[in-house]
Fold this protein.
Amino acid sequence: MIRIDVPLDSRSYPVVVGNSILSEFQSLVPPEVSRVAFVTQKGIDVSIPTELPSSIHYLPDGEQAKRLSVLEDLCGEFAREGLTRRDLVVGIGGGVVTDVAGFAASVYHRGVQVMHVPTTLLGQIDAAIGGKTGVNLEEGKNLVGAFWQPCAVICDTQLLTSLPKREMRSGMGELAKYHFLGGEQLDALPLEERVAACVQIKADVVASDEREGSTRALLNYGHTLAHALEIEGSFDLRHGEAVAIGIEYAALVAHNLGRIDEARLAEHRRVLDVYDLPRGLPEGSDIDHIMELFHRDKKALTGLTFVLDGPNGLEVVEQVPEKVLRLALTQI
């Protein structure tokens, strides 16, 4: 088992990574907890034994779970079960589950403890770590949420062995971004070490910028176009696949701005190809609508803003010219 600590003073917590480590659950439960509320989805066949009184709460499938109405229903279930501020919410599932479970924990009784057991690669290396929670609005993804750190995260890599191939590939889309955040040789590591390396990178970033005031925005590499694609149409895209397309796009924008050379652009493509990830816009993409969605992005405070590669690595770049962004959309 590999343990990585996310150092946030009184909000610090461990992330444990290993094969078949769900047995660590009870040792990570805070001592004052008297009841556990497991939050998951139908079809996630993960059972965690506990000696404490517990209840199971099921969310709708997919992005349908990330709605304010679902959050209201979940908190109502917590109240009927008698969950108190001293108790524990446990999110078991992918990023959708941990986002919603974490947000519910942050607002129920103005904050109860939460632990995450991510069951997807995307969740283990990204979504379950760092305390970002939220739900969607019709106007955009994750526009309502809170920062609420878990008390622990259990990344059991045995859970990944039953993932469908495409779900695993989606996780590789998020993993690909870590190549450009200091994990250049990730593809040479065995799975457990690869997951742990990504967790360590994210832990370091979160420790330096818990609430995304500066450097934490770098974790959104590739996400601006990804989120637009997820909103723009009914494309058959998983989140990590959309992120992969967003990484290719961000590299093209950086290249067109003269921030990176041909060799660095080729390295982006090599990484995406290693993980068998898509690099082109889905057929039927509406460039005008995508540009409109760029303006709604949370980073767009002073003009169109992107995380871009450059001579000093990834940076947040403000006021990227619209003509450059449009050109890159025709090249991808």
Q: What stands out?
A: The radius of gyration is 19 Å. The domain at 2-163 is CATH 3.40.50.1970 (Rossmann fold). The chain has a mean pLDDT of 94. The longest strand covers residues 140-147.
